[in-house]
DNA sequence: CTTGACCTTAACCTTGTGGGAAGGTTTATT
DNA sequence: AATAAACCTTCCCACAAGGTTAAGGTCAAG
């Protein structure tokens, strides 16, 4: 199967498939004319990446899934743990978004919302003090003093 | 105030501040030696961007907020609407994440999770049929037949 | 023989930020 | 005065995860 068909079958774009190959995720054989050729096994690998991407796995996580898929000694508990780890990660994201949402609603509540230019939201956002304390779950935003 | 101080005050990095300026978000005056100088007003603008970023606004959305902040004829209802729009956007994200989470848990449930290499998760993810139907909120993935 | 569909590589665009090079300024210490 | 440290400047590269376009090779049909 050539790349166009593989793309259509998996729902990926041909460009993405080539990109995955350049990252060493899913190899392909080559025909005499240089075209990529995908065996049923490789197609499964592509499908794995496609499905995993849809449920939020990064390409590096897909790499891990692919290794487990291709490893005969793989334990299903490991796969399950990776999935549950992703669930935990999603929970964190949801928590963070929910916290931000609360902050935004608090901001909006303080704003009268009429024709006047006086806006409590802007006043809050431009105030150096009180910098929107919503719980930071992970230290991703925490680069506060890189130049101390 | 020079950029280092401005960075420390706002919690932004000097790099980011320069980047914002290159995008035309927050201008700066220059001292004789070429160093950037920030007036209290400009500092407020930087603070606005910093706070808005923390609650999930993109830089383009920050641009919009800055314009409202600097426009005397700005109506607070517009600011409020922008904030509420962001809330709606977050709601969508949460909904999508929740849907993915459900899918992942369903996958995990089907997996025994022991030492055996037989894994229902991998079987599900590599199956071309049944491609993880979770509701797509927006049509962002819909580039299926670019080579028809 | 040419058109059109398919394939190839390569390069640049995105978003927002970090890292670092190479060099100019200022300040503080020797 | 000299020198080192701490600033500042611009410019380029990198990341994820591809999208888009360019320039060209291959193949089948008309």
CATH topology of the largest domain in chain A: Multidrug-efflux Transporter Regulator, Chain: A, Domain 2
Helices and strands of chain A: which structural class? mainly alpha
Oligomeric form of this entry?
A: homodimer
Strand portion of chain A, in percent? Answer: under 5%
Shape of chain A: elongated
Pick out the low-confidence regions of chain A: 134-148
Q: What top-tier CATH class of the largest domain in chain A fits best?
A: Mainly Alpha
Write down the secondary-structure element order of chain A. HHEEHHHH
Distance between the termini of chain A: 57 Å
- Count of individual domains of chain A: 2
Enumerate how many helices of chain A there are, as a single number.
Answer: 6
Q: Any idea what the radius of gyration of chain A is?
A: 23 Å
Question: Which two chains touch over the largest interface?
Answer: A-B, 76 and 75 residues
How are strands sequenced across the largest beta sheet of chain A? 1-2
Largest sheet of chain A: 2 strands, antiparallel
CATH-derived architecture of the largest domain in chain A: Orthogonal Bundle
Report on this model:
2 copies of one chain form a homodimer. With 148 residues, chain A is mostly helical. The first copy, chain A, folds into 2 domains: 3-70, Multidrug-efflux Transporter Regulator, Chain: A, Domain 2; 88-126. Chain A is 58% helix and 3% strand. Chain A has 6 helices and 2 strands. Chain A has a two-stranded antiparallel sheet. In chain A, a hairpin with a 5-residue loop joins strand 1 and strand 2. Chain A starts with a helix and ends in a 22-residue tail after the last helix. In chain A, 29% of the residues are buried. Mean pLDDT of chain A is 87; it is low at 134-148. Chains A and B meet through helix 1, helix 3, helix 4, helix 5 and helix 6 of A and helix 1, helix 3, helix 4, helix 5 and helix 6 of B. Chain A binds a DNA duplex (30 and 30 nucleotides) through helix 2.
């Amino acid at each position: 199967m050539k790349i166009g068909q593989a793309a259509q079958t998996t729902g990926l774009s041909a460009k993405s498939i080539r990109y995955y190959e350049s990252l060493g995720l899913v190899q392909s054989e080559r025909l005499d004319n240089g075209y990529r050729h995908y065996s049923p096994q490789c197609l499964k690998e592509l499908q794995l990446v496609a499905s995993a991407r849809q449920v939020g796995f990064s390409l590096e996580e897909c790499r891990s899934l692919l290794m487990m898929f291709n490893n005969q000694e793989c334990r299903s508990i490991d796969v399950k743990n990776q999935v549950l780890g992703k669930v935990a990660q999603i929970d964190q994201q949801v928590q963070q978004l929910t916290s931000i949402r609360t902050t935004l609603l608090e901001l909006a509540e303080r704003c009268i919302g009429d024709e006047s230019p006086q806006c409590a939201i802007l006043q809050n956002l431009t105030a150096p003090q009180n910098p929107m304390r919503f719980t930071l779950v992970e230290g991703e935003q925490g680069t506060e003093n890189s130049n101390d």
